[in-house]
Specification:
Blueprint (H helix, E strand, L loop, with lengths): L6 E6 L4 H5 L6 E7 L5 H12 L2 E7 L4 H12 L3 E9 L3 H15 L4 E4 L5 E5 L4 E6 L10 E7 L2 H12 L9 H8 L1 H4 L2 H4 L11
Parallel strand pairs: 1-2, 3-4, 4-5
Antiparallel strand pairs: 2-8, 3-6, 6-7, 7-8
Length: about 200
């Protein structure tokens, strides 16, 4: 859809994700500012309430048990037809059991390992192409957060194409493979990346 024809809105959100969204329409575009009343997973659920059963992809840095259980229930209820998780490779050191469960629920090809800090979701049906992104993680976080929800945005196809291009890696792949899959070294010179070569230290 031509961006000049998009219906653009902005909202300061004090209630639920559903209240913030209102009614999704073709060309829908919403920028929202919250104080942490809801998370990315709540925004996805609110969108699914309107789109019906959909294919969902989710980009995040880490994931918790609640999100796995939520997506498991959505699959059981046939509200999602497939799920893809694009997650930082280092999440394996902290979320191994949870991520193994994700694969058990959604299939061995349902995780793509990368070097990642993006928070993005795609929701796709025959009628809808929703792109969600923002500062919020999947979990509850009572701080200022911002998000965008767009229908038919060009970024939807960019994310879908990038997901398709990412190789499938074994769960216990060497860290270097995720870096190569992400093409990080192609975007930066080795001198610029040197300070980031050490493994990320996870907070306890």
């Amino acid at each position: 859809m031509n961006s000049t024809k998009r219906e653009k809105n902005a909202a300061e959100c004090f209630r639920t994700a559903s209240d913030a969204l209102g009614t999704i329409r073709p060309g829908f575009s919403l920028f929202g500012l919250t104080r942490g009343q809801f998370s990315m997973i709540d925004l996805i659920l609110a969108c699914l309430d309107q789109t019906g059963p959909a294919r969902v992809s989710l980009w995040t840095w880490c994931i918790a048990r609640y999100e796995i259980e939520c997506f498991e229930r959505l699959l059981m209820d046939r509200r999602i037809t497939s799920a893809l998780l694009v997650i930082d490779s280092q999440a394996r050191t902290h979320n191994r059991e949870i991520l193994k469960k994700w694969q058990a629920v959604h299939g061995p090809d349902s995780i793509k390992w990368v070097v990642n800090h993006a928070k993005v979701a795609r929701i796709e049906t025959a009628d809808w192409k929703l792109l969600l992104r923002g500062s919020m993680n999947l979990n509850f976080n009572p701080r200022f957060e911002q998000f965008d929800v767009d229908e038919g945005h060009p970024g939807f196809e960019l994310i879908r194409r990038t997901e398709a291009e990412l190789p499938l890696l074994h769960f216990d792949h060497p860290n270097g493979e995720a870096r190569r899959a992400s093409k990080i070294d192609a975007a930066w010179g080795l001198d610029a990346l040197q300070p980031f070569q050490k493994l990320k230290t996870w907070a306890k």
